[in-house]
Amino acid sequence: MEKTLHIAILPSPGMGHLIPMAEFAKRLVQHHHISATIIIPTTGAPPKAQISVLESLPENIHHLFLQPVNVEGLPDDSRPEILISFIMQTSLSSLRDALSSLKSKTKLVALVFDMFGHDSMEVGKEFNLFNFLFFPMNAMALSFTFIVPKLDEETSCEYKDLPYPVKVPGSVSFHGRELMAPVQVRTDEVYKGYLLLSKRLSLLDGILINSFEELEEETFRVLRGQIAGKTPVYPIGPLIQSGPSNGPDRHECLKWLDDQPSGSVLLVSFGSGGTLSLEQVHELAHGLEMSSHRFLWIVRSPDRDSNASYFSASSQNDPLGFLPKGFLARTINRGLTVPSWGPQIEILSHEATGGFLTHCGWNSTLESIVHGVPMIAWPLYAEQHMNARVMTETLCLALRLETDENGIFRKEEIEKVVKELMEGDEGKKISKRLKELKNSAMKALSVGGSSMESLSKFALQLNK
Ligand SMILES: O=c1ccn([C@@H]2O[C@H](COP(=O)(O)OP(=O)(O)O[C@H]3O[C@H](CO)[C@@H](O)[C@H](O)[C@H]3O)[C@@H](O)[C@H]2O)c(=O)[nH]1
Question: Which domain of life is it from (predicted)?
Answer without folding.
Answer: Eukaryota
